[in-house]
Specification:
Elements: H1 11-27, H2 31-45, H3 50-62, H4 69-84, H5 88-105, H6 118-128, H7 134-148, H8 162-176, H9 182-193, H10 200-220, H11 224-227, H12 230-246, H13 253-275
Helix pairs in contact: 1-2, 1-9, 2-5, 3-4, 6-7, 9-10, 9-13, 10-12, 10-13, 12-13
Length: 276
């Protein structure tokens, strides 16, 4: 089954390509470009817009994994109903404005960014399309259900170009693997994704990560090198107090910077502790 797919008219693909671009800018410490991407995400994917609702329809299908088959079918049915209510003309106009913004401020090569779940995004777009025949819609739905549910066999997709994939992974790892900890990468990915879901996923992540950091700092105060150094004890207490204070404040870049620095500090303390 071959159905023509225009990735630049795929709301979720554009969004994911921008997420990749923002992540690369963060890892390269290119703050001006990072801010440009964030501004575009905020302008075009703010809550309540047709483009945001269209994106949420996609995300309902490609972010829900390993669910029961009945749950997956209900999600799929509800998603199709909500997507059908959207005005395609308005979405087309908003996509056009978004594409113009990206081309002007970032460059068209953003659309060449490697998006790992591209095949799934294309499948969803084809299923949403009014040009897709009923028969093909059913085939596409079954393919999506195979991705979403543990109870259905996985569909065989056209294999990615292994050379392209290998080259991408090697370049990414060689540039960034030693720059950030895994937990820092996860925090940054949650942050750049927060513009489309009102920071729900980011809040969930921080609600788990901040208590973990506080516990790690409390434990670190018992280390010989730390408990005998009052200056280090005082700094640890200051960081703990600062993290506790953020619980009563909205998420800000100051909070994110504190968490990133604390993650590095804890890694350093525990690495030194293990080696001593």
């Amino acid at each position: 089954m071959r159905i023509r797919h225009n990735k630049k008219r795929n709301t979720a693909f554009i969004y994911e390509a921008l997420i990749v671009e923002a992540t690369l800018a963060i890892l390269k410490k290119n703050e001006p470009r990072q801010q440009q991407v964030f501004d575009i995400l905020k302008r075009h994917f703010r809550g309540g817009t047709a483009l945001n609702r269209d994106l949420n329809c996609y995300r309902s299908l490609y972010e829900n994994q390993n669910l029961s088959i009945n749950t997956c079918k209900r999600i799929l049915k509800e998603t199709r109903l909500q997507q059908k209510e959207l005005d395609n003309d308005i979405i087309f106009k908003m996509q056009s404005a978004l594409l113009k913004d990206v081309n002007k401020n970032l460059g068209s090569y953003v659309f060449n960014n490697y998006v790992p779940n591209y095949k799934t995004l294309a499948t969803i777009a084809q299923m949403f399309s009014e040009k897709t025949t009923p028969k093909n819609k059913i085939i596409l739905e079954n393919r999506l259900l195979g991705n979403m549910s543990l109870e259905m066999p996985r569909q065989e997709y056209e294999k990615l170009d292994n050379v392209v994939l290998k080259t991408f992974i090697e370049k990414f790892n060689s540039k960034y693997d030693n720059c950030l900890l895994q937990e820092q990468k996860e925090l940054l990915l949650q942050y750049v994704s927060s513009f489309a879901d009102n920071a729900v996923s980011l809040k969930v992540f921080l609600n788990e990560e901040i208590p973990r950091l506080k516990r790690a700092l409390e434990e670190a105060k018992k280390f010989d090198d730390v408990r005998t150094d009052q200056n280090m004890i005082d700094k640890a207490d200051q960081i703990i107090d600062k993290l506790e204070g953020y619980a009563k404040q909205p998420i800000s870049e100051g909070l994110l910077l504190t968490v990133l620095k604390t993650q590095s500090l804890i890694k350093e303390i525990y690495t030194d502790g293990d080696s001593s």
